[in-house]
Amino acid sequence: MTLSNNIFYPVQEDLIKLNNNLNKMIAAKHPILYAASEHLFQAGGKRIRPTIVFLVSQSTMKNQAILPEHRRLAEITEIIHTASLLHDDVIDDCPTRRGINSVHSKFNTKIAVLAGDFLFAQSSWYLANLNNLEAVKTISKVIIDFAEGEVKQGLINFDTTVSIEEYISKSFYKTASLIAASCKGAAILSKCDKKTQNLFYEYGKHIGLAFQIVDDILDVTTSPNILGKPSGSDFKNGNLTAPLIFALEEYPELQILINREFQNKNDISNTVKIIIQETKAIQKSKDLAQEYIQNARKIINEINCNITKRKLLPISNYIIDRIK
User: Fold this and answer.
1) What single string gives the DSSP state of each residue in 112-166?
2) What is the largest CA-CA distance in the chain?
3) Is the pLDDT higher at 258 or at 30?
4) CB within 8 A of 133, min separation 6: which ones?
5) What is the pLDDT of residues 68-102, one digit of tens each?
6) Could you tell me if 279 and 251 are in contact, meaning their C-beta atoms sit under 8 angstroms apart?
7) If residue 97 lies in a helix (H) or strand (E), which one and from where to where?
8) Which family, according to the similarity comment (predicted)?
């Protein structure tokens, strides 16, 4: 069994239950909203976020038993993530997601936006029913972060002066915030002390940033069939990611393509992606992801629990293994 599979193996049964519960939880009175939401859930996905919630939950319980509240948190996390995908696909006009037609392509933009709103509302309802104020405060902040991330991204579209620091800030709001909050939420539900809760938040933040950087590398190096969406879609929508930012430093002529917003047919597939792979941009992006992975590992070592190390350290390998 590969390292990549190892992180899912200890929680396989929990993920099966999660998938079954998600379909029950999104049931809505309006069949179109239900169908739109179910369309994306049925396509599956990596389920990396609930997997991390389950693993943190196991590692913070004395008998490694996952509480019903932990399960609900994992489900809430995946619902919030899916809601954000629905809205992202509308904003980016992405035709496919997880290898199937995106919701706005299959239905229409209005339905996709409403389905995303519906899922955010569902997540808020289930979150409130956890009856844990600290968990509610921690997870609900994520929805605010998502909105702020979209605004930040919109303000720097096709901006060739964007820095790696600005890219990381946007990546935190759009990706790492949810992973960080769900890790802390699991620790809260396990009744860990405040210091441990905050360590898990920082762990999730660094893991989330590494995960996003790797995703952005794959957007350049991997085929659409494997990605489950068109490759280079970030560039098309003006989102300058780590590989492109690093390539710009080495090859300033890329500004010409960015300034014309990649309007020529082969600007992305036959020009930008080739230039990026001919520079040191991919390696620099990998190095950046590794920095965040190393930070996450240091935090796990600070927690000083052998069960936590055994459960969570393989996640680092899984993330980096995705680009090998």
Assistant:
1) HHHHHHHHHHHHHHHHHTT--HHHHHHHHHHHHHHHHHHHHHHHTTT-TT--HHH
2) 59
3) 258
4) none
5) 999 999 999 999 998 998 888 888 778 777 667 77
6) yes
7) strand 96-97
8) Belongs to the FPP/GGPP synthase family.
What is the enclosing helix (H) or strand (E) of 259?
A: helix 254-259
Question: The tokens of 45 are what?
Answer: 């996905």
Q: According to the model, what pLDDT value does residue 29 have? A: 65
Of residues 178, 76, 176, the one with CA closest to residue 132: 76
The two structure tokens encoding residue 207: 């893991």
CA distance 168 to 210: 10
Give the distance from CA 277 to its chain's centroid: 24
Residue 231: closest CA among 222, 242, 241: 222
For 3-321, CATH number out of 1.10.3720.10, 1.10.287.1770, 1.10.760.10, 1.10.600.10 equals 1.10.600.10
Retrieve residue 47's tokens.
Answer: 């389920």
- Percentage of the residues of the chain whose pLDDT score is greater than 90: 57
- How many Å apart are CA 254 and CA 176, to the nearest integer? 28
From residue 29, alpha-carbon distances to 34, 44, 120 in Å are 8, 23, 16
* Of 147, 200, 182, 222, nearest in space to 47 by CA: 182
3-class DSSP state of 69: helix
Q: What one-character DSSP code corresponds to residue 30?
A: S
Structure tokens, 136: 């509610």
Could you tell me the CA-to-CA distances from 91 to 104, 201, 237, 287 in Å, in that order?
10, 29, 9, 30
Instruction: Report the candidate in 221, 322, 213 with the shortest Cα–Cα distance to residue 278.
Output: 221
Domain edges within the chain: 3-321
Mean pLDDT, rounded, of the chain:
89
Q: To which H or E segment does residue 6 belong?
A: helix 3-6
Check if the beta carbon of residue 252 is closer than 8 Å to that of residue 281.
Answer: no
Q: Which residue has the tokens 């990706």?
A: 175
- Residue whose tokens read 């579209």: 157
- Say which residue, 107 or 43, is predicted with more confidence: 107
Which pLDDT band holds residue 131 (cuts at 50, 70, 90)?
Answer: very high
